[in-house]
Amino acid sequence: MKLPWKPHHDDAPWPVILTDEVGSPPITLRPLRVRDEDDWHRIRADNASHVQPWEPTLPPGVRARPVVSFRQFVRELDAEARADHVLPWVIDVGGRIVGQVHVFGIVRGAQQSAAVGYWLDRAAVGHGIATRAVALAIDHSLRDAGLHRIEVNIRLDNEPSLGIVHRLGLRDEGVRERFLHIDGAWRDHRSFAVTAEEIGSGGLLARLPDR
């Protein structure tokens, strides 16, 4: 039976490219590339106000990292991925970047867990792209990447993201008070999680009703 998702480069932990060609529009999760620089800066500038309420910020007293070139930024992402610390994908639709999904905070050993974060271009909202991208990332993480548990932490007032985890059927694990520094303050988050046993053989992507 043909799976609705296709992993590439199975013999290497990174780079990894994931595609969903069944849903509409088809989407690809791929690494950021140096030649994406112009598109990357454009989409980040266009969506600055759109993502600001949900973006991590540094608490007072924490020093920001020095600004690096885009080329170095891409190299550092790839190095972190090869070191098994993060899986940093951009969401590509028709050759255009429309967002990002990262699996980060990877812990191996007895825990085998990580978290997922994401954002989407405001122009691409409403087409199920973020839901499918998160499903692809989680399915890969809990199968090919060998992790056991993935969590998603969402601000209590982030209705679009709460809709994503509900559609995917992630388990609600309750509220973490003042959990992350977001948009200039410590914010409460609701935690959702899923384990390898819970996704079944078909994965989360295959569960979506419009597939």
* Basic shape: globular
Which sequence of strands runs across the widest sheet? 1-2-3-4-5-6-7-9-8
Low-pLDDT windows of residues: 1-12
Instruction: Output the CATH topology.
Output: Aminopeptidase
Largest sheet: 9 strands, mixed
Helix count equals 6
CATH class: Alpha Beta
- The CATH architecture term is 3-Layer(aba) Sandwich
User: How many domains comprise the coordinates?
Assistant: 1
Radius of gyration from the alpha-carbon trace, in angstroms:
17 Å
Please state the structural category. Answer: alpha+beta
Strand content: 25-35%
Number of strands: 9
CATH superfamily: Gcn5-related N-acetyltransferase (GNAT)
Helix content: 25-40%
Order of helices and strands: EEEHHHEEEHEHEEH
Model description:
With 211 residues, this protein is an alpha+beta fold. The chain has one domain (6-58, 67-205): Gcn5-related N-acetyltransferase (GNAT) (Aminopeptidase, 3-Layer(aba) Sandwich). It is 26% helix and 32% strand. The protein has 6 helices and 9 strands, in the order E-E-E-H-H-H-E-E-E-H-E-H-E-E-H. It has a 9-stranded mixed β-sheet with strand order 1-2-3-4-5-6-7-9-8, with helices on both faces. Helix 4 (129-142) crosses helix 5 (159-168). The protein is globular and about 45 Å long. It starts with 5 loop residues before the first strand and ends in a 12-residue tail after the last helix. The model is unreliable at 1-12 (pLDDT under 50).
